Amino acid sequence: MVSTMAAQDLIRIHKALSEMGVSSRRKAEEYIQQGRVKVNGHPAVIGMKVNPAKDIITLDDERITVFEEGRKVYYAMYKPRGYVTTLSDELDRKTVADLTKDIPVRVYPVGRLDKLSEGLLLLTNDGEFANMMMHPSHQVSKVYRVTVAEAVKEDQLIALAEGVEIDGKRTLPANVKVITKEEGRTVMEMVIREGRNRQIRKMCEAVGLTVKRLRRTMIGPVKLSMLKPGEFRELTKGEISALKTMATKNLVRDEQQKKRESRPKRDLKQKTAANRPPRNNKGDSYGNSKGNHKRY
């Protein structure tokens, strides 16, 4: 097994946990202070040095292994407002890469959140997974909490739900509901299955609504949960599997729908004629001679 650290290296425990892909160094210190980290069966102490290749390090009594080169990783992050969803920026703005320095491998964002938006963002080094999540045919659902400045009217809700035209193309149907109404603002929950550029903001603008705050709270089954702005965590195996399953099912359903829509539609008159019983030349369609219908 090839690892990112030499076997003879002794490093501080919080750095070891970070380089092994467990958490950021700051979060690792919290785990240690909470007594959740042990080294060779004994509680870890902040500042102690360990050899990750030889020492048995556990978190919540589960052994942590040395990070392997080439391993695919999947993270959920709370992207704060003010950060752009890129790894580098020519305008020298803050990027999500500034928040992922403690992740031991290079990861990149799956999809985007604009600079003024916040909330759940997936990060990975798995290109196939990223493409599956972003491709429109997979229609992975995304849930947003949207605060607008106006009182939302019923016709605006209907328009958002049925689809509006942005950038020359109509949006797919969405699930939209009002969470709270207060003077000077309305909070909505919007669920969409696309990932077009600034889609939520443009949808609201199309119906005359001004977005004051936009936060993504879910992607498929993955929730923002208790993450705070700037924090991240690794996805569980169950979450990764559920995301892939959702994307695959949606793709199959989309392909089946396209096949149904591509079938030639038969003329209603032709279909009715095809289902009608054959007519007897000497009488009606049931074989009775003209003028000789039986009465019961």
From TrEMBL:
<dbReference type="InterPro" id="IPR050343">
    <property type="entry name" value="RsuA_PseudoU_synthase"/>
</dbReference>
<dbReference type="InterPro" id="IPR042092">
    <property type="entry name" value="PsdUridine_s_RsuA/RluB/E/F_cat"/>
</dbReference>
<dbReference type="Pfam" id="PF01479">
    <property type="entry name" value="S4"/>
</dbReference>
<comment type="similarity">
    <text>Belongs to the pseudouridine synthase RsuA family.</text>
</comment>
<dbReference type="InterPro" id="IPR020103">
    <property type="entry name" value="PsdUridine_synth_cat_dom_sf"/>
</dbReference>
<feature type="region of interest" description="Disordered">
    <location>
        <begin position="252"/>
        <end position="296"/>
    </location>
</feature>
<feature type="compositionally biased region" description="Basic and acidic residues">
    <location>
        <begin position="252"/>
        <end position="270"/>
    </location>
</feature>
<dbReference type="InterPro" id="IPR006145">
    <property type="entry name" value="PsdUridine_synth_RsuA/RluA"/>
</dbReference>
<dbReference type="Pfam" id="PF00849">
    <property type="entry name" value="PseudoU_synth_2"/>
</dbReference>
<dbReference type="InterPro" id="IPR018496">
    <property type="entry name" value="PsdUridine_synth_RsuA/RluB_CS"/>
</dbReference>
<feature type="domain" description="RNA-binding S4">
    <location>
        <begin position="11"/>
        <end position="71"/>
    </location>
</feature>
<dbReference type="InterPro" id="IPR000748">
    <property type="entry name" value="PsdUridine_synth_RsuA/RluB/E/F"/>
</dbReference>
<dbReference type="InterPro" id="IPR020094">
    <property type="entry name" value="TruA/RsuA/RluB/E/F_N"/>
</dbReference>
<keyword id="KW-0413">Isomerase</keyword>
<dbReference type="GO" id="GO:0003723">
    <property type="term" value="F:RNA binding"/>
</dbReference>
<keyword id="KW-0694">RNA-binding</keyword>
<dbReference type="InterPro" id="IPR036986">
    <property type="entry name" value="S4_RNA-bd_sf"/>
</dbReference>
<dbReference type="GO" id="GO:0000455">
    <property type="term" value="P:enzyme-directed rRNA pseudouridine synthesis"/>
</dbReference>
<dbReference type="GO" id="GO:0120159">
    <property type="term" value="F:rRNA pseudouridine synthase activity"/>
</dbReference>
<protein>
    <recommendedName>
        <fullName>Pseudouridine synthase</fullName>
        <ecNumber>5.4.99.-</ecNumber>
    </recommendedName>
</protein>
<dbReference type="InterPro" id="IPR002942">
    <property type="entry name" value="S4_RNA-bd"/>
</dbReference>
<dbReference type="GO" id="GO:0005829">
    <property type="term" value="C:cytosol"/>
</dbReference>
